[in-house]
């Protein structure tokens, strides 16, 4: 596990993940205290990636459970293979007869069958899903429960036993306890409020959009071929765009995609006409694209005014 906060920063940086000391402190404490981390924040700021990077940094296997509306125990925990159990019963029908041979009365027959329960009620009929796989893993692992806010409140309540005692009750087998306590990372895009009971069991971490300096650092790391002047312009514009009333604000992953796209097109400045054609890289709705186009025009006009260049005439000016 991590030895210190500085160790977290260094090892995550080694996996090309830039983190603040606040984030590193929460990760270190979660490992040391064996508590889950509830990571909240806007979509696309690196919450899911954090779980993946922690697993890589610690050289642990990652088990991921993607949450969605309607997710239940059968899909998240386990399924009992009744068809397989029935097939075993049919195949062993003759052997059952041998077991019961010579039994004196119904009570003795039942007792003999009961002694063979391990044959018909065992983990060979258990089909583990992500949560149970995490509990039964032979070594420590990282369990990523992604977008927990998309699941129902009933499923959230079901998680409480697992996150508290790292055990689960299987009616056919009894209580199964974790062989090794997993490091649990839950992510939420804040589409709904998590319950106090869930939050009480976790260390809380909020990841917001990075400031200009950190976003530039991320771009330099992830897109080293990008023109630094262009990257600085992109980051400045993105921070303006995120203040607009958009249906979906551009995330870090989308800003990286935009810089990569502009670099592939050999764009050196946001004045280039190709820039407008690539706005769909960061905007996913037509109304947002139009707002971004207007903001780009205003940004370029302000920049030209600061440099002493005449601003381009707007459509409104051309009509007068």
Summed up:
This protein is of the alpha/beta class and 320 residues long. It has three domains: 5-76 and 131-206, P-loop containing nucleotide triphosphate hydrolases (Rossmann fold, 3-Layer(aba) Sandwich); 79-125, no CATH class; 212-305.
Cα radius of gyration in angstroms = 28 Å
DSSP helix fraction: 40-55%
User: Low-confidence stretches at least 5 residues in length (pLDDT < 50)?
Assistant: 311-320
Q: What's the total helix number? A: 17
What is the number of independent domains?
A: 3
The 3D shape can be described as elongated
Provide a descriptive summary of the structure in words.
There is one protein chain. With 320 residues, the chain is α/β, with parallel strands linked by helices. It folds into three domains: 5-76 and 131-206, 3-Layer(aba) Sandwich (Rossmann fold), CATH 3.40.50; 79-125, no CATH class; 212-305. The chain is built from 17 helices and nine strands. It has helices at 5-14, 21-33, 47-58, 73-76, 82-91, 93-100, 106-114, 117-120, 130-136, 153-165, 196-200, 212-222, 228-241, 252-264, 274-277, 286-307, 315-319; strands spanning 37-40, 61-66, 78-80, 126-128, 141-146, 167-170, 174-177, 183-188, 203-206. The strands form three sheets. Strands 2-5-8-1-9 form a five-stranded parallel sheet, sandwiched between helices. The chain has a two-stranded antiparallel sheet with strand order 3-4. Strand 6 (167-170) and strand 7 form a beta hairpin.
């Amino acid at each position: 596990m991590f030895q210190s906060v500085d160790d977290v920063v260094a090892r995550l940086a080694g996996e090309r993940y830039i983190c603040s000391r606040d984030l590193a402190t929460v990760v270190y404490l979660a490992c040391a205290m064996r508590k889950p981390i509830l990571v909240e924040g806007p979509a696309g700021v690196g919450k899911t990636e954090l779980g993946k990077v922690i697993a890589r940094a610690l050289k642990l296997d990652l088990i991921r459970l993607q949450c969605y509306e309607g997710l239940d125990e059968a899909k998240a925990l386990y399924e009992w293979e009744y068809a397989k159990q029935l097939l075993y019963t049919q195949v062993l029908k003759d052997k059952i007869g041998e077991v019961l041979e010579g039994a004196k009365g119904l009570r003795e027959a039942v007792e003999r069958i009961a002694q063979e329960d391990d044959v018909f009620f065992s983990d060979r009929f258990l089909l583990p899903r992500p949560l149970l796989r995490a509990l039964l893993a032979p070594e420590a692992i990282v369990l990523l429960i992604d977008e927990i806010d998309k699941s129902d409140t009933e499923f959230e309540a079901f998680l409480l036993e697992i996150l508290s005692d790292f055990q689960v009750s299987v009616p056919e087998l009894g209580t199964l306890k974790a062989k090794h306590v997993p490091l649990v990372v839950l992510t939420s895009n804040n589409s709904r409020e998590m319950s106090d009971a869930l939050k009480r069991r976790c260390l809380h971490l909020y990841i917001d959009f990075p400031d200009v300096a950190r976003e530039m650092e991320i771009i330099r790391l992830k897109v080293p071929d990008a023109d630094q002047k262009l990257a600085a312009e992109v980051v400045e514009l993105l921070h303006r765009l995120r203040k607009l009333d958009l249906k979906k604000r551009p995330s870090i992953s989308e800003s990286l995609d935009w810089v990569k796209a502009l670099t592939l097109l050999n764009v050196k400045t946001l004045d280039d006409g190709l820039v407008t054609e690539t706005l769909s890289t960061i905007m996913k709705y037509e109304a947002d694209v139009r707002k971004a186009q207007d903001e780009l025009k205003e940004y370029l006009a302000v920049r030209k005014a600061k440099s002493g260049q005449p601003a381009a005439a707007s459509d409104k000016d051309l009509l007068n």
